[in-house]
Amino acid sequence: IKQFVTGGRTTFPDIHFTVEDVxxxxxxxxxxxxxxxxxxxxxxxxxxxxxxxxxxxxxIFHLVGGKIAEMWVNWNVLSLMQQLGGGTTPTVGVGCxxxxxxLRFN
Length: 106
What we know:
Layout: H1 2-11, E1 16-25, E2 28-38, E3 52-64, E4 67-75, H2 77-83, E5 103-104
Antiparallel strand pairs: 1-2, 2-3, 3-4, 4-5
């Protein structure tokens, strides 16, 4: 996760997330958010463009003992690539999880 966050901050130094909605029950909750940032570095083979992008997403969290044990993230990487002027096919593994397996935290 640290590598992902560092890469994101390098590519989008003005990155900002707005939490639009939070809801849940028991040990699971979801956050609907909007990402905003200006591309100042390479992303998925797209060179720095200086373009701002706005992308919605949803993250679902599963808690165990009050800590995040798993999370699923769904966001529109295709829209991001199009806003940056890139192709129409996302690169597997770049900003998108093509499996249904959650990210697990120990």
